[in-house]
Amino acid sequence: MTAPITENQFATLSNGTRLHYASAGDPARPLILFLHGFPEFWFEWQAQLAEFGHDWHAVAPDLRGFNLSDQPSAVSAYRARHIAEDLRLLIGHLGAKQCVLVAHDWGGAIAWNMAISWPDLFSRMVIINAPHPYLFAQALMHDRLQQQASAYMNFLRKPGVEALLAENDFARLEALLSGMGQPAAGWFDGAVRERYRENWRRGLTGGVNYYRASPLYPPVDGDPGPAALTLDPEDFRVRVKTLVIWREKDVALSTRLLEGLALFVDQLEIVRVPEGSHWVVHEEPVLVNSLIRGFLL
């Protein structure tokens, strides 16, 4: 039996941001926070809310710029520090002093930054197919295969890309969620497809502004990308016990991004999942739930 999920909850934070979130479970229980990626919204985590709501206060917000949360227009509003601050304040709004953090894709990028900045805020962290920022920057500078795999990021940074993504009733976004070049995803059926279209109709600018605001993207002629940054690896150490779940057939993120990760994470477990795509949360929710539960024991 699954725990009931409550939608249409809103938190107005002290920084002025209003976030929408869905949740399951008793708010008096320990908090487990789920962070979605692009082009998704809180609904990515419906199976996890239904599962972990039995014994946790399971919460999945719409990140700034997505779905029912605030969607500021300025690109600068989507720098990682602002999104991380939203979530730090949300944790306090929910009455927690510490939580478990579970994150995928862009949510994972924000989670890495939060764990680096505020390690005492998290008892444990689970990252699903989202690279550590220092290792990703190095790969974007030096790994030609990763540069090619990440070329879509420069497409999403272009002015006016929102109109292209919305063409033909969001056909490009549907293709993205159908496996990123892999066989069509069975989870993306009629009812789920309509929920995603409803989300996308509320606006795409916030989501693509994550790419525009980030300094991490493949270099192009006249723009060195992350090579323009001065990065000290010691500034990227993670002191939160971390589980990384990595789908090995993710066409956008190579397994080479796992190499050297143990040098940055003091307590690290890695589980490689051989089959399937970037969208493992949808494709194998039972497996994902089992891996998270095992890590939390």
Question: How would you describe the overall organization of this protein?
Answer:
The protein has 297 residues and is an alpha/beta fold. It has a single domain (6-296), classed as Alpha/Beta hydrolase fold, catalytic domain (Rossmann fold, 3-Layer(aba) Sandwich). Helix content is 37%, strand content 16%. It contains 11 helices and 8 strands. It has helices spanning 46-52, 80-93, 106-117, 133-142, 144-149, 151-156, 161-177, 190-201, 205-213, 280-283, 285-296, and strands at residues 6-12, 18-24, 31-35, 57-61, 99-104, 122-128, 242-247, 268-273. It has an 8-stranded mixed β-sheet, with helices on both faces. Helix 1 packs across helix 11 (285-296) and helix 2 (80-93) crosses helix 3. The protein starts with 5 loop residues before the first strand and ends with a helix.
Secondary structure layout plus pairing:
Blueprint: E1 6-12, E2 18-24, E3 31-35, H1 46-52, E4 57-61, H2 80-93, E5 99-104, H3 106-117, E6 122-128, H4 133-142, H5 144-149, H6 151-156, H7 161-177, H8 190-201, H9 205-213, E7 242-247, E8 268-273, H10 280-283, H11 285-296
Helix pairs in contact: 1-11, 2-3, 7-8
Give short descriptive properties of this protein.
single chain, Rossmann fold, 11 helices
Please outline what is shown here.
The chain is an alpha/beta fold and 297 residues long.
**Strand order in the sheet with the most strands:** 1-2-4-3-5-6-7-8
Q: Helical element count?
A: 11
What does the average pLDDT come to?
A: 95
Shape: globular
> Which CATH architecture is right?
3-Layer(aba) Sandwich
What is the CATH class designation?
Alpha Beta
Main beta sheet: 8 strands, mixed
